Amino acid sequence: MEQIEEKNKAPRYKTVKIRVSQNEYTLIKEIAGETNVSTQIRDMFLDEQEFAFKNMPKINNHLLREVAMIVNNVNQLARAVNENKGRAREEESLYSMELLATIEKQVQEILDCNVMKVKGQREFKKLISSNETIREFSPINENRKREIKICFNQEQYEQLISKSEELGGKPVARVMREYFISQAERVKKAIPPAKYEMVSELNTAGTALNYIAKGVNERRKAGVSLVLHSVMAQLEMVQGLIEKIHNKETTNDF
C-alpha cells in the first residue's frame, strides 16, 4: 500500500530564483531566442555540451529576422500567384514564380554565408571555450531587478548542488547566473557579427516586398484578380536590390 502511494505522489520540484540586470537579461534573450529563458539556463547549466550545440544560435538574430520576413512574404506571394493562374497569362505566372524563387534562393545563400560552421558538439565546445571573457561579477548589485524562476525536479536539483560545489560552493543562484552569463558571452562572440549595412539593405528590400504582399492580399480579400504585370515590375525591383546584396556578400566586398 505504501509503495502504491509512493508511486502516485507527484514529482517534487524545487525553484531557484536568480536576479539579473537588464543588460544581462537582454543577452540571455538574444541567446535563448524563442526558447523559454528558464529552460535555457537550467538545461545549459546541467548539460553544457549537449545543450550548447543543439540550442545555441549559430547566426546573428538580426539577419535571421530580415531573411525570415522576406521568405514569409515570398511564400504569401507564391500562393497568390498560384491561385491566380487561371486568370493570367501563363508566361506572366511563370515569370513571377521565377522571380520569387530567385529572391528566396538568394536570401538563403546570404544566410548560409553568415552561419557559424560547426560540424559537431566537440568543435562547438572548443569554439566557445576559445572565446574567453574577462568578467568580474559582484555578489550584490542594485541594478539586478529582473527575477527569473527556474524549476528543477529532485534529480536535477541534486545535479545543481553537485555542480555548484564543483564551482566553488557559492550560492546556487549566483553560480547559475555567473556561469550562464559567461557562457552566453562566449557564444555571442562566436556568432558571426551582423553587418549593419547588409542588414539595413535587406530590411529595405524586405519592407518593399512586404508592401507588395499586402497589396496583393488586399486584392485577394476583395475578390479581385491580380494584375501580374504590375506585380512583376515591383518584384523585379526587389529582386534587383537583393541581387546587389547577394553579389557583395558572396564576393566579400562588404
From TrEMBL:
This is Bacterial mobilisation domain-containing protein. Residues 64-109 form the Bacterial mobilisation domain. InterPro entries: MobC (IPR008687). It comes from the Bacteria. It comes from Billgrantia endophytica.
